[in-house]
């Protein structure tokens, strides 16, 4: 989706074929994706969305500082799957990309002006159009399934 600090930014859902670019939005402390032809509109990805970058991906090693204190690192992969992490921690960044080598990088840490294309959206439920009620127990289990437990070893770049 769009990270918590982008709530004051105009946004729209991603579509297959969208040409997107990493950017810093006005009045926000977060980097995110915008359509190349709509630089002030955040493009929100759903967990499971696959994107392909035009070049190897660089990300800040400086804990979000501008300029990054420790410089940039590069991942030698150009395809990634969007996911959300740390969902049990409400006041932190959740939007991340997982690369084929298992590396997970927060979207807000990506270098600005990286261009990508939305390749594939996650599958829709066959009952997406109909009214659907979920029990609180099922909703809690889904929430737990997407949260990364504190004791799980995960190579997250933040």
Word description of this protein:
Residues 123-158 are annotated as: Disordered. Residues 124-142 have a biased composition (Basic and acidic residues). Residues 143-158 have a biased composition (Polar residues). This protein is mainly β and 158 residues long. The protein has one domain. Helix content is 7%, strand content 34%. The chain is built from 1 helix and 12 strands. The strands form 2 sheets. It has a 10-stranded mixed beta sheet, with no helix packed on it. Strands 6-7 form a two-stranded antiparallel ribbon. The longest helix is centred in the C-terminal third of the chain and has 11 residues, at 136-146. It starts with 10 loop residues before the first strand and ends with a strand. 26% of the residues are buried.
List keywords for this structure.
158 residues, mainly beta, 10-stranded mixed β-sheet, two-stranded antiparallel ribbon, 1 helix, 34% strand, globular
Radius of gyration: 16 Å
Q: In percent, how much strand structure appears in the residues?
A: 25-35%
Which series of helices and strands comes N to C?
EEEEEEEEEEEHE
Q: Which range best describes the helical content: under 10%, 10-25%, 25-40%, 40-55%, 55-70% or over 70%?
A: under 10%
CA distance, first residue to last residue? 18 Å
Q: Enumerate the spans where pLDDT stays under 50 for 5 or more consecutive residues.
A: 126-135, 142-154
Strand order of the largest sheet: 1-4-3-2-11-5-8-9-10-12
Which whole number gives the mean pLDDT?
80
